[in-house]
């Protein structure tokens, strides 16, 4: 299987395209394969009534005891009605694009027919419905709830003009396997945790569909999920759940506002494509997403642990590139001795960083100055910092640090005010 040509020891996935030949930092989408697995378009889906689709009905029609549909206004698309829907019983007459089983409507297939109008809430009365395809039609208005259509297997609505989706839309769809809702101008909505009740869900595609908020943690329980496409939305939060569904083959999360690190994906043995560019992701690229041509510089490894203590701030992820923090001036907050090529200063003052001070700072034994003032750091000062042999200054003023201050050499200047230390500082 093809993979990246260089190592990704750290990533921001901001779409910049920088890589380093030794210990590189990804600023592009991380992919496991050069070829993307295409979503199947051979989905057998169906549509029920002309009246259900357009929200207009010409006559009273009965589809079994639980499928009675009330009389509504006549169809606006007269040509469509005349050519495709005849008679009073869609399961006996020549109703093109309508599938039935034992006298019950099961399939509605009305894709790419240039249908306009709205989708009537009566579609929810078609209790035997298994598949719906309304894609590539300018249908508009609010989507009605499909809650508790327990036999619904396939739902294809992409490239329509629906304006909103109800909160209970996916509730009770226990047999749902495939959903395609790309390119729909829906009002902002969030993925409901109730979708995790669709335990057979294998394909969920809702790119450019107005989705906001976080991916529900409950999605980790979707053990059949193979293709997850949620790109070009306004998703926020972490993506820890994506490391759980073992059948995932393709993950597309690009162009959102996701944050935090990429989780370990080693459980995803079938994964072929992972795309997450144009987000605010920061952290170490999991080993499961990279091939190692050579080790990172030891200083880089230490600095990444330091950044981990701060929660991988985006400022650091954006500026720390390459495999030598002393020869590249873009390494924010890092000062070096040019002759010795050693790190002598860490200056992360006034950055609004949160998190803790990593004990790994003490592994940078050439440090002379550590300046962390005016941030939101909590926890204690690691004891190991007192052992730094040439340290001259430690400035942690104006944070939320607490606990006991380690005993430093008398030659070390300590600036500790604006914290909550135990021993009177």
From TrEMBL:
SUPFAM superfamilies tied to this protein: L domain-like, Triosephosphate isomerase (TIM)
Magnesium as UniProt keyword: no
Organism superkingdom: Eukaryota
UniProt KW keywords: Glycoprotein, Leucine-rich repeat, Membrane, Receptor, Repeat, Signal, Transmembrane, Transmembrane helix
Membrane topology: Single-pass membrane protein
Domain Leucine-rich repeat-containing N-terminal plant-type: start-end pairs: 300-337
Localization (cell): Membrane
One GO cellular component term: membrane
GO MF annotation, one: triose-phosphate isomerase activity
PANTHER family xref list: OSJNBA0070M12.3 PROTEIN (PTHR47986), RECEPTOR-LIKE KINASE TMK2 (PTHR47986:SF34)
Name assigned to this protein: Receptor-like kinase TMK2
Species assigned in the record: Ananas comosus
UniProt lineage: Eukaryota, Viridiplantae, Streptophyta, Embryophyta, Tracheophyta
Gene coding for it: LOC109723382
